[in-house]
């Protein structure tokens, strides 16, 4: 049953990320999805950014399969598509996807969201607050429900400070310092480098020709965490990462909106699975920079966030601020 | 006249770098080259590393032209080829170049050197000491004339700490922090970013698709120097770069070899054209880490270094240590 009291209508959340595409089917009333499915690898990008046709080719059969299996005869009334790179790569998607979804599924209410926004919606919901979404990269997004504030997310050469690639790169730098006999080196990290990658002098030849350099750097971040309890250089790297994460959170927090209870800073994404070696210094840095904030694990992932946006859209209750690239809600098309 | 007392014999220095190929013709006795010529763009690299045939295709006509113009009837008795990437990319060159040079020019004594070694030979000569060669990247090389010590030169993701790409990246990071409102930002550097690259939020789209990302990062290093006299963040970046440069020098210095006068640390490469904003903190950091070292500008560039190695080879007086990848001197072929 939907909140409109009409049976047979459903909402759709789509999460298109670097590691693949997932779809969730839900109803406007229920918090949890009816069903979710992973439906293919990363969506191609072309000269106009994310390839809308390639996305649809993967999403539409998955949606029809979900409807057939879980809601025979049902129709989709609202959909939200969250995509990595929407802010910079979403021109093609914004131009083509709403019409195509309307044509193919009869969906009239559609939202296109940057993955940081679906991360926010999944982790925080429709309240004021902030999210730090961190994996290989790192971005912080906050809102007072009037406007969005964004910090970092600039990629491994311009920022993503404190994210997985940043931590891994700092760890490899410290390992190479030890190999050279330079100040600031860590023999513990050098031993991990040798165990993971082989001879240090051959690491440049392994790393630079690859297209997925940030991911390779990030793959070393857990080694830094492993060394942190006995190696001061590794612990220092995580302390500095924690400071950068807190700085990004502080730049986007809606301080003015905080009531007596303060407000939540949700931490979401694979980086925080690193656990206490990162979370202990992070809680300390957050306490110093944002004394009224409560750091909490995000309650839902970006797919759940996309579904929540679609649910809110369906009931006319979307409180998150519209934004040309972060959260774009085209006017509904004519009823099909 | 050569040192063998035979007229008509000459020596050859070749410098193959990222920005192109240069050749110098000299005699064993005279310090300065008879003539130098630039002869083409960067040498191709293939699966076996630097492409020996492509290098020869450009070098041989240039050598014949130099001989015709400056030493008609002369012949080359010794040659030294310095190449960027020799340490990691030189397998093909080491296998093919000596025989090919012997066949084409009758050269019997040949040295193949990493560009850091030709930088050393150009800047320091055949004495114990150390060189820091810095442009987009940064490498330090030192010797007590028994063995080489190398530090850094690991590329922009693993090190090159304090080099041009490192300084430029740190400057852009500080600019993006100011744009976000994060701690550690510099409004002066943000203004320079906007003047040079345009809207900050479009910089990731400009940078990441390019193949020459390190060069683009390094192009921002002079902007950091320009801001340093009035902006503490920019000054802090150059102070940290200076510390990294001193750390690399300290890791390779032949401390035990120093006589009462101490020893020289030669600073060579385009980075040091940045001048006082970098050199003032660098002299301070060197004085602290290496109190017996004298920082000096390198006397000659890598092309002059290659020529000096060829001269020393010709007279049997090469004192710089042999090394499988840094300075490789194959046994002389049969006299042609």
From TrEMBL, chains A, B:
Residues 12-288 form the ATPase BadF/BadG/BcrA/BcrD type domain. Pfam families: BcrAD_BadFG. Gene3D superfamilies: 3.30.420.40. SUPFAM superfamilies: Actin-like ATPase domain. This is ATPase. It comes from Streptomyces drozdowiczii. The lineage of its organism: Bacteria, Bacillati, Actinomycetota, Actinomycetes, Kitasatosporales.
